[in-house]
Amino acid sequence: MPTYEYQCMECGLRFEDISSVENKEKPQKCHCGAMAERRVPEGVAFHFDAKIEGLGPQNTGISELDYEIDRIIAKDAEKKWDNVEARDAVKREIIRDNPGTSKEDISREPDGSYSVMEEDLKKGALRVRTINNVAMQLLKRKRKDLSPSKG
Questions:
Q1: How many other CB atoms sit within 10 Å of the CB of residue 15?
Q2: How confident is the model over 25-38, as pLDDT tens digits?
Q3: Are 15 and 36 in contact (CB under 8 A)?
Q4: Distance from CA of residue 129 to its chain's centroid?
Q5: Count of Cβ atoms closer than 10 Å to residue 6 Cβ
Q6: Arithmetic mean of pLDDT, 84-101
Q7: Can you tell me the distance from the alpha carbon of 7 to that of 39, in angstroms, rounded to the nearest whole number?
Q8: Separation between Cα atoms, residue 20 and residue 145, nearest integer Å
Q9: Is 66 helix (H, G, I), strand (E, B) or coil?
Q10: What kind of architecture, by CATH, is found in domain 1-41?
Q11: Which of 8, 88, 101, 103 could form a disulfide bond with 13, CB atoms 3.0-4.6 angstroms apart?
Q12: 18-22, 100-104, 117-121, 138-142: the lowest-pLDDT one
């Protein structure tokens, strides 16, 4: 049986379905519940292999599957950004309720909550940040010394 391509006019999903030749003109049910009409190809289809370096879009060649993968990735990203925004809101509230406090003074507790660090912890955190900054500067200088000079 041949594979036909359908386009849902409700949600915009384009998908493929295997159907008998006799049923090729009949609409097929989309995931959203609407009936999708058969899409007639507009031109000649061909395939070529393109080399993509680095991250590229997911493309399995099955439009319905690609749509689902893209939808899942988008939902996951949306959820993660919502979590980041919620954590930032909690931190802003702590800073507002504790005058003189900055983001550097806030610590995440083992249970996931946030609190203002005690003075001795603030001093320890400042020391760690200072050591890290010095180490990063030394690494940058070392990389610069090791990189081939352009000339």
A1: 21
A2: 888 888 888 888 87
A3: yes
A4: 29
A5: 21
A6: 93
A7: 6
A8: 69
A9: helix
A10: Single Sheet (2.20)
A11: 8
A12: 18-22
Cα–Cα distances in angstroms (integers) from residue 41 to residues 38, 60, 103, 118, in the given order: 10, 19, 57, 68
151 or 111, greater pLDDT: 111
How far apart (Å, rounded) are the C-alpha atoms in residues 19 and 89?
Answer: 52
Taking the C-alpha atoms of residue 90 and residue 5, their distance in angstroms, rounded to an integer, is: 48
- Domain spans of the chain? 1-41
CB atoms under 10 Å from CB of 4, counted, come to 20
- For the chain, give the number of residues: 151
Please state, rounded to an integer, the average pLDDT across all residues of the chain: 81
Distances (CA, A) of 23 to 13, 19, 20, 91, 100: 20, 6, 5, 59, 72
d(CA 28, CA 35): 5
Is the pLDDT reported for residue 52 higher than 60? Answer: no
Q: Specify the residue for token string 């980041």.
A: 84
From the list 140, 93, 102, 141, the residue with the least C-alpha distance to 122 is 102
Angle at 24 between CA 23 and CA 30, to 5 degrees: 95
Q: Cα(16)–Cα(65) distance, rounded to whole angstroms? A: 10
Query: β-strand 3-7 against 14-18: which pairing, if any?
Result: antiparallel
Whether 23 shows a pLDDT value over 60: the answer reads yes
